[in-house]
Prior knowledge:
Layout: H1 2-14, H2 36-39, H3 46-49, H4 55-59, E1 62-66, H5 77-83, E2 90-94, H6 103-108, H7 111-128, E3 133-138, H8 140-150, E4 162-166, H9 180-187, E5 189-191, E6 205-207, H10 208-227, E7 229-230, E8 236-242, H11 251-259, E9 260-261, E10 269-273, H12 292-310
Parallel strand pairs: 1-2, 1-3, 3-4, 4-8, 7-9, 8-10
Antiparallel strand pairs: 5-6
Helix pairs in contact: 1-9, 8-10, 9-10, 10-11
Amino acid sequence: xxxxxxxxxxxxxxxxxxxxxxxxxxxxxxxxxxxxxxxxxxxxxxxxxxxxxxxxxxxxxxxxxxxxxxxxxxxxxxxxxxxxxxxxxxxxxxxxxxxxxxxxxxxxxxxxxxxxxxxxxxxxxxxxxxxxxxxxxxxxxxxxxxxxxxxxxxxxxxxxxxxxxxxxxxxxxxxxxxxxxxxxxxxxxxxxxxxxxxxxxxxxxxxxxxxxxxxxxxxxxxxxxxxxxxxxxxxxxxxxxxxxxxxxxxxxxxxxxxxxxxxxxxxxxxxxxxxxxxxxxxxxxxxxxxxxxxxxxxxxxxxxxxxxxxx
Length: 311
């Protein structure tokens, strides 16, 4: 009874909403602002920047960095800035399919479309001869990598060396996602609160079609975790999870700990981070004060990732 009452109240709350949002020119949603990687992929993707590596370059670690749902390559830009002129590893910032372009592009894309550019970059690197490839995912970027692991994508391919997850999205903190199939056609979209800076790099409006895709992906990956996911040989997984996160439930880290094992049956490494920020490694353009602890969290994780990549 309570469930149906919640559905009714939610529907009544949003029934008068316009199903098509009003888009302003400064928003990513407008279609007037594209992620820079769309125009200049060579500045973001190693496969474009260096498609013919020397034997030494082919052995250098390449980290494919994947942002989360409704975000863009900007989510990993601070890691690239932090790495600066380092030459001991390279970073490929992948833009998920349907992201970084327009509200309509976002609305029409499935979660499999989101995943496609990740696989394309991996395959371009592999074909170019790169031998040392790793992944870093934030939020739903992590979920997509888990799905790739579960579906056997890496079978008969070069195995990833390291996988890093920042605030993996396994269980959404906002329980409205479970109701999207019922209230979605009524509300049309939901609206996120963004600062003016964030509006350039994140979709403010989330079409219910994309929320349904997100729910389907999360449900699929949770089922795979229940069955058990085994990492490829010689692949490590490190999870960094904020202790308090209003987007992803910390219980998701527990599901990964229980559901993912190394090829020799060992558990993966989980670090709980004293933070209440979602994707705590991204600090720029946030609203409010960034604390010393926030800065320390970011630096410590970046240093840990870099150390693991090159050792």
